Amino acid sequence: MVRVLGDGRRTLRGGSGAAAAYASPVSPDQPEAEDWYCREVLSGRRPIEVVGENGSYLAFNHTRPGYALAHVVVVPKAHVSSLLSEPEELALTEMVALLQKVSTSVVEAHGAARIVTNLGAYQESKHLHWHVVAGDRLPAPTEVELGERARPWHPGSPGS
């Protein structure tokens, strides 16, 4: 279920008995079972704050931000392993369009942005994902700090 917030932002939340929000349910014997984004985010199991989307891609505030000013993740709504996947799987036009939209908003709010994706051994979750970030890298949080330091970024909100 996607809930529209008062300022136009939406939160994706799973519900009891709710079908998967984007991806089809993942069974343990599928490669996607090791894919955190399919299993947790796209299924609706993990609450996220959506900041943008189009037909093939979803952008949301990172659930554990690692940068001080903004940390947005952009993922395909269907399982795609990495940027090295077949080009027809990537929906390149939609991917670039959403990355550009999110990046433009971050630059307008903070004056700069970085866009990064990881491949091979550097890629923890085997689901293509991009990080659009601004500000200094935050120190690794302790378990107590995880709930206290999240400062989501919102498009159009100056200085957030």
Which tags fit this structure?
seven-stranded antiparallel sheet, single chain, alpha+beta, 160 residues
Detailed description of the structure:
By secondary structure, the protein is an alpha+beta fold. It has a single domain, classed as HIT-like (HIT family, subunit A, 2-Layer Sandwich), CATH 3.30.428. The chain contains four helices and seven strands. A seven-stranded antiparallel sheet has the order 1-2-3-4-5-7-6, with helices on one face. Strand 1 (2-4) and strand 2 form a beta hairpin. The protein is globular, with a radius of gyration of 15 Å. It starts with a strand and ends in an 11-residue tail after the last helix.
Cα(first) to Cα(last) distance is 26 Å
> How are helices and strands ordered from N to C?
EEHEEEHHEEH
Derived from helix and strand composition plus strand pairing, the structural class reads: alpha+beta
Number of structurally distinct domains:
1
- Per CATH, which architecture? 2-Layer Sandwich
For the biggest sheet, the summary is:
7 strands, antiparallel
User: Total helix count?
Assistant: 4
Estimate the mean pLDDT confidence.
78
Shape: globular
Give the DSSP E fraction (strand runs of 2 or more residues): 15-25%
Please give a quick description of this structure.
23% of the residues lie in helices and 20% in strands. By secondary structure, the protein is an alpha+beta fold.
